[in-house]
Amino acid sequence: MTTTKGFTAEVLRLDPQHETDRICARIRELMRNQVKRGGVVVALSGGIDSSVTAALSVRALGRERVIGLEMPERHSARETLALSGKVAGALGIPTIVEDISGILQSVGFYEKYDNAVRMVVPEYGDGWASKIVISGVANQPRFTSFYLVTQNAQQVQSTVRLPLQPYLEIVAATNFKQRIRKMLEYYHADRLNYAVAGTPNRLEYDQGFFVKLGDGAADIKPIAHLYKSQVYQLAEFLGIPAEIRSRKPTTDTYSLAQGQDEFYFSLPYQMMDLCLYARNHDIPAESTAAALGLEPQQVRMVFRDIDTKRKTTRYLHLPPLLVEEVEWE
Amino acid sequence: MNLKDEIRNFVVENFLFGDAGGLTDDSSFIREGIVDSTGILQLVAYLQERYQVAVADEELIPENLDSVQRVADFVEGKRSGAPCAGSEG
User: Any idea where the Carrier domain is (chain B) (predicted)?
Assistant: First the structure.
């Protein structure tokens, strides 16, 4: 039973040396006993999660058994490649750069995406940029709704609520990015007889913030049990460059810069971490609210959102479902 | 068919694959896992198309949309011009 008196962010403090040793031992055990491949491919986004996953893989397996894959595209933030290159340099691992813009063009992504946006903003075209944001569930008891933010060539932004069909079309097209990246990760893994290391943290894994058969696919997920604040603690311990540790979490998916808390999570990650921890340990909304400087009612809404996301994204975690169990062992 | 039956049919056909199971007029769509946020979009699209009801941002709340009865009352209220939960009128 966790005591609720004096509940603070300290509950997420970990011993980085101990946790690193524990994860590395587990990576080696999984690779040796189950995965049985010679190394790992890690897709480097320039973000904290992929950087820490790569660093842990290097500690567990040795730098000669880890390869970084950098996969920018036309909409990627300008600094993405520089940052992922910096991590690879700091870790001393080789990298391969695969610009996926050509593949995205071939599958018609850019055209499909723009056409979907034009369903609600007919003038959308060259020189424009856009992203999807959600309504803040922590502020009002509303169903989550999705908004399209567009910015024209004169940098003027406007926001419109997305009806069902354009929303589905935009998300379906955008999912090409994660799936194409994963296809290339497996290409390189197969050619090197390596495995693929996935990079979700606990918030993303628990709340279903990933694309099925896209970034959700991997052979091992070394940090899926860690709250995002704990990933930052490991990052510091593992010597991840400061620019990456101080960067705001981004999806780097849309042509307009998009924070993760704009698109999926109802609060910034430090607060979401604590709410998720509280939910997992039966900490009352009142104690959680006091720790976060929120109203208990807001925390109750976040708790409800956590439960709803768990329920509605359950299928993302499921393997293909069979009519009856097929014995294979 | 009255308004409530039409809405109930829409929910059963679109979210329950035709099997109404234990769906009552007051079953909570969200709590019982019948409709998620994408489903709410689908429901709103149906209300707009079938009943020409415009749903404002502030009306996207459980009080208006979280059961067959609530949706029927919401549409009825919109049609009669009565103020709905979340609306400013």
Answer: 1-79
Residues A64 and A194 in one domain: yes
Contact B66, B15 (CB under 8 A): no
Same domain, A134 and A220: no
pLDDT at position B89:
44
Structure tokens at B52: 């020409």
Q: Which of B41, B57, B86 sits opposite A163 (nearest CB)?
A: B41
Chain B contact present for A311, CB below 8 A? yes
B15 to A154, A171, B20, B29, B37: CA distances (angstroms): 43, 21, 9, 10, 12
Decide: helix, strand or coil at residue B40: helix
pLDDT above 70 (res B84): no
Ligand-binding annotation for A50, yes or no, is yes
**Annotation-wise, does A199 bind a ligand?**
yes
Low-confidence ranges of chain A (pLDDT < 70): 1-5, 136-141, 260-261, 263
Q: Do A163 and B30 touch (CB under 8 A)?
A: no
Q: B3-77: what CATH class? A: mainly alpha
Is A4 within the bounds of a domain? no
A85-127: per-residue pLDDT in tens? 999 999 999 999 999 999 999 999 999 999 999 999 999 999 9
Q: State ipTM.
A: 0.85
Contact between chains at A141 and B61 (C-beta distance less than 8 A): yes
Contact A308 B38 (CB under 8 A): no
Place of tokens 């009669």: B80
Structure tokens at A122: 């007919």
Domain limits at A291? 266-315
Tell me the whole-structure pTM to 2 decimals.
Answer: 0.91
